[in-house]
Every structure is written in C-alpha cells, then in structure tokens.
Amino acid sequence: MEGDIAQLGQYIGAGIAGMGAGIAALGVGNVAGNFLAGALRNPSAAAGQTATLFIGIAFAEALGIFAFLTALLLMFAA
Amino acid sequence: MEGDIAQLGQYIGAGIAGMGAGIAALGVGNVAGNFLAGALRNPSAAAGQTATLFIGIAFAEALGIFAFLTALLLMFAA
Amino acid sequence: MEGDIAQLGQYIGAGIAGMGAGIAALGVGNVAGNFLAGALRNPSAAAGQTATLFIGIAFAEALGIFAFLTALLLMFAA
C-alpha cells in the first residue's frame, strides 16, 4: 500500500462536501416548489412574488455553493 | 503509506462540515417556501411579513455559514 | 504513516459537529416557516406572536451554536 494518507482524506472529504451541494437542492426545490404551487392556485399574484422567489432561491443556493466550494478547496487548495 | 494521519481527519472533517452548509439550505428553503406559499394565498399581507422573512432566512443562513466556517477552519487553521 | 491518531478523531469529530450546526438550521427554518405560513393566513394576529417567533428561533439557534462551539473546542481546545 502506497500513497499519501492525507490525500485519501482530501478526496473522501470532497465527496462528502459535494453531497452537501446536492442536499442544498432540496432547499432550493422547496422554495421554487411552493412558489409554483401557490402561483398555479392564484396566478394573478404570482408576478408580485417573483422577487421573493429569487431571494429565497439565492440564499438557499448560496449555501449549496459553499458546500461545492468546500469540495473544490479540499481537492485543489488544501 | 505515508502522510500525517491527523491531516486525514482534517480533510474528512472539513467535508462533513461542508455537507452541513448544504443541509442548512433546507432550513432556508423552508422559510422562503412557506413565505411564498402564504404570500400567494394572501398577497395583500405579504409586504407586512417581509421583515420576518429576512429574519428567518438570516438566522438559518447564519448556522449554515457557521458550518462552512468550521470547514474552512479545519482545512486552513486547525 | 505518522501523526497522532487522537488528532484524527478531533478533526473528524469537529466536522461532524459542524454538520450539527447546519442541521440546527432545519429547526430554525421550521419555526420561521410556520410563523410565516400562519401570519400570512391571519395577518392581524401576527404582531402578537412576534415574541414567540424570536423565542423559538433563539432556542433552536442556541443549539446550533452549541454544535459550532463543540467543533471549535474539538479543533482548538480538546
């Protein structure tokens, strides 16, 4: 058995962090899903809530990007 | 097999903490999703609850940033 | 392979504790999300429940901060 054991940790850690990016999609999906459910029930109000939709998506997406950033840092910077 | 086994722990730990940042997106998504569901049912009340929306997002987002901070500390400071 | 195997445990443990901070965001999101869902259904009652909203957020947030504190202690004090 050869190789640097610290690299083993980097790659396993990057994979776990990448899973976090995927989990964040559940949060984004909850925002967009609730928007669509409401917009299709009351289409006349949907245009007024588009800004809120993007705010909610942006904050949830940011956390998923942080998880992806952790994976990138583990692979290429740590 | 070579390398410092403590670094293995730092990198795997950073990945797990990065996953935590992604999980926090579920909380943010729940806040924004419920806001949108309610705002589209009762658009006239939505403007009055915008402050609460941002308070809820801010507290949930803060915990996700703490998790990301844990990942950064593990990679570069611990 | 070199290094202290106890440090391996400290760092992996810190990562798992950091994930706990992210999971606590689910609780915060549940409090704020349900407040918003109810406040938009019955806006006139929302102002009277703002104190309860902050109590709920504070207790859930405190547990997330405890998890983050556990991660910091594992990295720098244990």
TrEMBL record, chains A, B, C:
Keyword terms of this UniProt record: ATP synthesis, Cell membrane, CF(0), Hydrogen ion transport, Ion transport, Lipid-binding, Membrane, Transmembrane, Transmembrane helix, Transport
Source organism superkingdom: Bacteria
Protein's membrane topology: Multi-pass membrane protein
Residue span, V-ATPase proteolipid subunit C-like domain: 12-74
Compartment list: Cell membrane; Membrane
Cellular component annotations (GO), alphabetically ordered: plasma membrane; proton-transporting ATP synthase complex; proton-transporting two-sector ATPase complex, proton-transporting domain
InterPro entries xrefs: ATP_synth_F0_csu, ATP_synth_F0_csu_sf, ATPase_proteolipid_c-like_dom, F/V-ATP_Csub_sf
Transmembrane segments: 12-33, 53-77
Site for Reversibly protonated during proton transport, residues: 61
Main location: membrane
Gene Ontology MF terms in the entry: lipid binding; proton-transporting ATP synthase activity, rotational mechanism
Function description: Key component of the F(0) channel; it plays a direct role in translocation across the membrane. A homomeric c-ring of between 10-14 subunits forms the central stalk rotor element with the F(1) delta and epsilon subunits.
Family per similarity comment: Belongs to the ATPase C chain family.
NCBIfam families found in the cross-reference section: PRK07558.1
Record protein name field: ATP synthase subunit c
